[in-house]
Write a structure and sequence with these properties.
Blueprint: H1 23-36, H2 41-46, H3 50-64, H4 72-86, H5 89-103, H6 106-114, H7 123-138, H8 144-152, H9 157-180
Helix pairs in contact: 3-9, 4-5, 4-7, 4-9, 5-6, 7-8, 7-9
Length: 198
């Protein structure tokens, strides 16, 4: 933890080397190294305790990558907007990069991070993000009218569940990242920023 490059989070917990990890976790890390060239620092942070790492990664993969009525981009947009409300530098950096990459639109990625209301969004996307914001800011004030507003723009019951689940997960993850000063990998800052051809 002596340099910014090696800094993962503020606690002095033992973060094991990849070769010292349990086989399934080592396999997951090696897969990420092959696919992306790095292991996200949030996973390195959780790797100090295998019993915490496994459910965190399983929940993330289920919410963000498994089949859903929400597209992968929509789920990433929820993550960014929730993280913006919570001012989570880690998640804004990492999931802002995902929005840029998945959409092919770096301007959309920047607007999601700064103020999604300034972006050109469909009524469906705006309703989804408004609901995610309300979950984050005042979940106890959500009523049937809020869920009905989602149905009116085409979300079914499963999609509403997934919006709530993704927003809930990011609220937890943001709070952990903020509390522990998790630092995003530098690679995220450069993803999805290439200017499209004129």
């Amino acid at each position: 933890m002596s340099s910014q490059q090696d800094y993962v989070h503020a606690l002095d917990l033992p973060i094991p080397e990849v070769d010292a990890l349990e086989p399934d976790i080592k396999g997951a890390f090696n897969h990420l190294l092959r696919e992306d060239g790095f292991v996200p620092n949030v996973l390195r942070a959780y790797s100090f305790d295998a019993d915490k790492f496994r459910p965190f990664l399983k929940m993330y993969n289920n919410l963000m990558l498994a089949d859903s009525p929400l597209s992968t981009l929509e789920r990433e947009m929820i993550g960014v907007v929730v993280s913006a409300i919570n001012r989570c530098v880690y998640c804004l950096t990492t999931h802002g990069a995902a929005v840029r990459t998945l959409s092919g639109d770096p301007i959309l990625g920047e607007l999601m991070v700064q103020n999604y209301r300034a972006a050109k969004l469909s009524p469906r996307q705006r309703a989804m993000l408004d609901f995610a914001v309300k979950i984050t800011e005042a979940s106890n004030s959500i009523t049937e009218a809020d869920r009905e507003a989602l149905r009116k723009v085409g979300f079914d019951e499963r999609a509403i569940w997934d919006i709530a689940a993704v927003a809930g997960f990011f609220n937890m993850s943001n709070r952990m990242a903020n509390a522990l000063d998790m630092v995003p990998n530098s690679e995220y800052h450069y993803q999805g920023r290439q200017r499209p051809p004129a």
